[in-house]
Amino acid sequence: MRREASILHVDMDSFFVSVELLDRPELVGLPVAAAHDTQRSVVSSASYEARRFGVRSAMPVARAKQLCPQLVLVTPVFEKYRVASRKIMEIFREFTPLVEPLSIDEAFLDVAGSLRLFGSPIDIARQLRARVRDETGLPASVGLAGTKFIAKLASQRAKPDGILEIPPARTLEFLHPLPIGAMWGVGAATERALKSRAIHTVADLAREPLDSLRRIVGNASAEKLHELANGRDSRGVETTRIEKSIGHEETFATDITDRTMIERELLRLSTRTSERLRDAAIEARTIAIKVRWDTFETFTRSRTLPEPTNTTQRVYSTARELFESLAPADRAMRPVRLIGVRAEQLVDAGSGSNSLWNEDEQWQAVDSAVDEVREKFGASGLTSARLLGGRDEVVDPRSLQDPG
Questions:
Q1: What's the pTM?
Q2: Binding site as annotated, residues for Mg(2+)
Q3: Band of the pLDDT at 401, cuts 50, 70, 90?
Q4: Which CATH number, 1.10.150.20, 1.10.3720.10, 3.40.50.261, 1.10.10.60, labels domain 177-230?
Q5: What pLDDT is stored for residue 404 in this prediction?
Q6: Given pLDDT bands bounded at 50, 70 and 90, which one contains residue 217?
Q7: Neighbours of 321 (CB within 10 A)
């Protein structure tokens, strides 16, 4: 256990909405949500005024409007959020090089090595919030603790726009009264299972014998939960993140039965996935797809390739063949609600090739040329002719965002 609360968790408040309000100051103080105003759209972010009505992220817009008829919807523009995120992360790194981004709007910071430069951890938290506010106009909440787990819990309880420090010596005093649902790794099903055994608080969980806990939630989860419930979390702030998979998925405004349209969206998803692979200088051994029919039945299919790849054409052709295995071309296609493409079993680019003949060589040259144009002129600088046109079919704004 650290002697000082030198691990910070910084979480931007209603990030997407806060960014939008910079351009729409007349909406400040009103219930606002970032979401597309379509039948199947979901809320990406909600202001705290909207949250008072029960509006939450990932909630269907139709339900959000029922809860809050006066809700103001603003169309999310993810490029603005990415620009703001990069600026925020740059500010974080001015205080410490040990920054671990968790998503576009939150990060862990280890400031133990910055105390002589900037003062105590709480002083650093105050300076950091002030810098973010002054340079971006955006509010942030900060939790400080001796472990990552407690710092994240503290930031959630500091919201909105606040700071909460949990001195390491008072970790259990803060942690144990919390409801069991506050624990990482405790979803709805696990919470029900624990409560059925009269485990309602973190203190109850900490006191539960490990053998008993294993019978309730299994071996791996039991040990992790038991450690966290007793305030033990040895994880450090990691400045590099190893991707386990990369992919994108899209939800349609209406169920799609047009095979040509599905193939176009597979190409779009494959393009975005392969671009991210190349940007990270990695390749995928396995390509997978996800299909959700109009009945909400969801299927996945995957294929391990002879050689790892990051070419758009190879990813797309594999994804299309996998889709055809679920929906043969000689049969009427079931209506599709959602489709996704994912690259898995990632390796460093060039590390998995042992063959003398590279079937992707020509496509690699094409991708290289496209990437050069993309780097100079942005994501829309050059694209396949098949991908030109509107995107009214895609309604879930989160499906248009590059993770991380």
A1: 0.73
A2: 11, 105
A3: very low
A4: 1.10.150.20
A5: 35
A6: confident
A7: 13
d(C-alpha 319, C-alpha 302), whole Å: 8
Give domain 245-387's CATH architecture. 2-Layer Sandwich (3.30)
3-state secondary structure the chain: CCCCCCEEEEEECCHHHHHHHHHCHHHCCCCEEECCCCCCCECCEECHHHHCCCCCCCCEHHHHHHHCCCCEEECCCHHHHHHHHHHHHHHHHHHCCCEEEEECCEEEEECHHHHHHHCCHHHHHHHHHHHHHHHHCCCEEEEEECCHHHHHHHHHHHCCCCEEECCHHHHHHHHCCCEHHHCCCCCHHHHHHHHCCCCCEHHHHHHCCHHHHHHHHCHHHHHHHHHHHCCCCCCCCCCCCCCCEEEEEEEEEEEECCHHHHHHHHHHHHHHHHHHHHHCCEEEEEEEEEEEECCCCEEEEEEEEEEEECCHHHHHHHHHHHHHHHCCCCCCCCCEEEEEEEEEEEEECCCCCCCCCCCCHHHHHHHHHHHHHHHHHCCCCCCCHHHCCCCCCECCHHHHCCCC
> Does pLDDT of 148 surpass 70?
yes
CA–CA distances in Å: residue 207 to residues 176, 226, 387: 10, 9, 57
Percent of the chain with pLDDT over 70: 86
Fold observed for domain 1-169: Alpha-Beta Plaits (3.30.70)
**Is 322 in contact with 316 (CB distance < 8 Å)?**
no
pLDDT, averaged across the chain: 87
Average pLDDT over residues 217-241: 88
Which residues sit in the known binding site? 11, 105
Catalytic (active site) residue 106: yes
Q: Find tokens 């005093």 and name the residue.
A: 173
Q: State which of 113-127, 178-192, 373-387 shows the largest mean pLDDT.
A: 113-127
CA-based end-to-end distance of the chain = 29
Q: Are 204 and 77 in contact (CB under 8 A)?
A: no
Catalytic residue, chosen from 100, 106, 208, 275, is: 106
